[in-house]
Amino acid sequence: MALREFIDSQGRAWKAWDVPPHRVFTTIRAIADRRVRVTPGYAPERRIRAERRHRVASPYLEHGWVCFESGTDKRRLAPPPPDWANAADGDLEALCERAAQGSTRT
Known about the structure:
Layout: E1 3-7, E2 13-19, H1 27-31, E3 65-70, E4 73-77, H2 89-98, E5 100-101
């Protein structure tokens, strides 16, 4: 995970970091029941959906993104441009301007 700090042309300090795509879980772990011992009085769970692990809601974000933050201003650029972590400060500012404003949470 890369972390960059830069100052834009207006003098605002920014932090930029990449957020990797969601983890891919193997079918074996997702399906296998790790409880091997019988427990007296055990009642099976009543969950409707067996797989409850967090998934990225938007296909737009499935390849990860770059998060930009300056004070309360947060932006997200998806997908992350190749080699963005080695870009010059001026190029980072241009990427930041292209980024969508809003929450960095998925």
